[in-house]
Each structure stands twice: as C-alpha cells, then as structure tokens.
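Narrative summary of target 7.
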Amino acid sequence: MTVGTLAPKAESKKPRKKKEIVDENAPLLPKTQETDAEFHEFNGASFSGAVFNLSTTVIGAGIMGLPACVKKLGMVPGLLAIILTALLTEKAIEFMIRFSRAGNISSYGSLMGDAFGKYGKASVELSIVIGNIGILIVYMIIIGDVISGTTSSGIHHAGILEGWFGVHWWTGRTFVIVFTTLAVFAPLVSLKRIGE
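Modeled conformation, tokenized:
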C-alpha cells in the first residue's frame, strides 16, 4: 500500500552559476606566450630549462634530506613533517605567483625586493648563494665517497675507481673531487642559462 502518487516529483530547479566547459584535451601551457603589459612569464628562460632546474633541485634535495629526516624523527613524525613541508611549500609558491602577477614582477629577486626592501633582497640573494654552495659541497662529498671510496670507523669502503682499477694517485679522493669540480661543476656554473 502506497500513500501519495506514483508520478515522479518535480524537482525544484535552483539557479545554477554558469560554469565554463573545459576542454580536457587542451594543453596546460599555451603554445605561444601572450604579452601582457611587457610581463613575460619566463623572462628569456626556456620552459625545458626551467623544468630541468626545478627537477634537479627537487630530486637533489629529496635524495639528501628525506632519509635523514625520517631517520632522525621516526617513520610517522618524519612523514608528517614531509607532508607539512609540502603543504607550506605549495602555499608559499602560490603566494609568490599571485603577488608577482599582481605587481608584474618577472624575477624572484624583484619580488623579494618589493616584499623586504633592498636589504631584505640582498639577504635573500646571499642566502641563496650560501645554500647553493652548501648543496655543491654535499654533492662533492657524495661523489668523493662513491667514486673514490671512504674510510669510516677503521673500515675502508672501496669506491668505483678503486674497485675497477686499484689504488692509484688518480683514484684518490682529492684528485676525484678536484677533477669533478674543474671538469663538471665549473663549466655548469659558468653558463648563464643551464639549457644552453
């Protein structure tokens, strides 16, 4: 036994906001850059160079920092710290993009200059230089350990060159680090743009 009618109820139609229909096959980045009041998003840098730079930074920092974070804090607090850092990084990047577009600012240095003044800009640039030098030192230590070997607690771990060719003056740590610095790092830091 049913009470009421079997006819379908007329749904109350609420006015909906007009939503844009987005083409799912559209590229995320436009094929050509539009000029808007002489503001260029990449300011002369290529997209592939920017992706390469960001990828090497993220991968390098992750390889160096994440295992140490989890080892010191433990698994659960370490993962929570990683997630919190990711959320804070995402929010900071969002703020930087929003304010750089609002002020037609095309470089990170100019954005920091507007936010912190000329002394703040100088201190931010100095901290970037110090951070990059620190990262290069970490890379040199890892290259020295892997390629030429290391001795820890009286135990010697042979590196790649020592394992292949034995102990020679050119398989030693000093030669490997100096050679890597002069043959790899010096040419890379000399380029104005890494994509060239």
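DSSP finds five helices and two strands in the chain.
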